[in-house]
TrEMBL record:
One of its GO terms (biological process) is positive regulation of MAPK cascade. The keyword Ribosomal protein does not apply. Its main location: membrane. The lineage of its organism: Eukaryota, Metazoa, Chordata, Craniata, Vertebrata. One of its GO terms (cellular component) is cell projection. InterPro entries: GPCR_Rhodpsn, GPCR_Rhodpsn_7TM, GPR37_orph. It comes from Pygocentrus nattereri. Residues 38-310 form the G-protein coupled receptors family 1 profile domain. The chain crosses the membrane at residues 20-47, 59-79, 99-118, 139-160, 203-225, 251-269, 289-313. Pfam families: 7tm_1 (PF00001). It is found in: Cell membrane; Cell projection. This is G protein-coupled receptor 37b. SUPFAM superfamilies: Family A G protein-coupled receptor-like. It comes from the Eukaryota. The keyword Signal applies.
Length: 365
């Protein structure tokens, strides 16, 4: 690792590239602040509010934990490399950063699929006023499947990355630029070398099918089936169930919105992979580098926008944060009771309606 004194200063002297460095820094800082704040808010709402501890919210909190980790670890390293053309910590970050980014795609994909399944189950029981209660073991098992599956599927990324140094620029003092390229090391054992070659050949269509087509098609099919169930329940439900059905429909629309944001942020990554595979010879290296940077920043943008969508579109999350932000002296008992009752009847709650006589647990976010 180079000493800090040898890192080039991207902000001085002032050139045409300096404005791009300022733009990248400001945009990344905005993503970082919004993403960290919103993801921490989602985690606080789920962890500190007794009426929000459902399997759906556990999945959303799990996604927030992963997004927060990616923003804290990967975003600063990617921005640092873009500004200085040097990988901090060298070969380690060259392998780990792409691994975490691909694993995050897996976590989001499997979380969206699990949310769709859970929403369909809730829609089939919409007239029961509460979700099917699941114990901690069942919830932990589902979260473990998501994490283990995503981490294992992303492991080949560690085999196909290498850090190479190139002399960049044509100035009097040419700088050494470090690039993290897809290249399999010949020093790997035969089994791992063959695995890396197989993954490299299938990586383009594997990522496109597993991390884009699967969540997109699964969300579309499941959401249509869930909406049909909700409409059927709405036609045959009693008047008192209208509120629960409306909240179920709201959550179904929220899942679709999350899938749309995820798909929009993943498309540039797939375009970059296809351009690298089929048009690398005809595309200038600077254009390929810019496309790769945009795809990475969009992944971080997705991690920041997802919790913001939840806070804006889902009334239970918004009301929970509002309830948490009030002081106990200023909050009215009637308003707190109204908010707690809505959380009990929401598609996020695992608490039976009969338990509404109990005192609400405090939510200190």
């Amino acid at each position: 690792v180079k000493d800090l004194q040898y890192f080039p200063n991207p902000f001085y002297p002032v050139t045409s590239e300096t404005y791009g460095a300022y733009a990248i820094t400001c945009f990344s800082l905005l993503i970082f602040v919004v993403g960290v704040t919103a993801n921490v808010a989602i985690m606080c709402v789920v962890c500190h509010n007794y009426y929000m501890r459902s399997i759906s919210n556990a999945l959303l909190a799990n996604l927030a934990v992963w997004d927060l980790a990616m923003l804290l670890f990967c975003l600063p390293l990617v921005v640092f490399h873009e500004l200085t053309k040097t990988w901090l910590l060298g070969q380690f970050t060259c392998k780990v950063v792409p691994y975490i980014e691909v694993a995050s795609l897996g976590v989001t994909t499997f979380t969206l699929c699990a949310l769709c399944i859970d929403r369909f189950r809730a829609a089939t029981n919409v007239q029961m006023y509460y979700e099917m209660i699941e114990n901690c073991t069942s919830t932990a098992a589902k979260l473990a499947v998501i994490w283990i599956g995503a981490l294992l599927l992303a492991l080949p990324e560690l085999l196909i990355r290498q850090l190479v140094a190139e002399n960049g620029g044509g100035s009097e003092e040419p700088s050494e630029e470090q690039r993290c390229v897809v290249r399999i090391s010949s020093t790997l054992p035969d089994t791992l070398y063959v695995l890396g070659l197989t993954y490299e050949g299938a990586r383009l269509w594997w990522c496109f099918g597993c991390y884009f087509c699967l969540p997109t098609l699964f969300t579309i099919g499941s959401s249509l089936a869930t909406a049909r169930r909700i409409r059927r329940a709405e036609r045959g439900c009693a008047r008192g169930n209208k509120k629960q059905i409306r909240l179920e429909s709201q959550m179904n629309c929220t899942v679709v919105a999350l899938a749309i944001v995820y798909g929009a942020c993943v498309v540039p990554e797939n375009v970059c992979n296809m351009a690298s595979a089929y048009m690398a010879a005809g595309v200038p290296p600077a254009t390929m580098a810019l496309l790769h940077l945009i795809s990475q920043l969009l992944l971080f943008l997705r991690a920041a926008v997802t919790p913001v969508l939840l806070l804006c579109l889902c009334r239970p999350f918004g009301r929970s944060c509002g309830l948490a932000g009030r002081s106990s002296a200023a909050a009215s008992d009637d308003n707190e009771h109204e908010c707690t009752t809505e959380l009990e009847l929401s598609p996020f709650s695992t608490i039976r309606r009969e338990m509404s006589n109990y005192t609400a647990a405090g939510s200190h976010c």
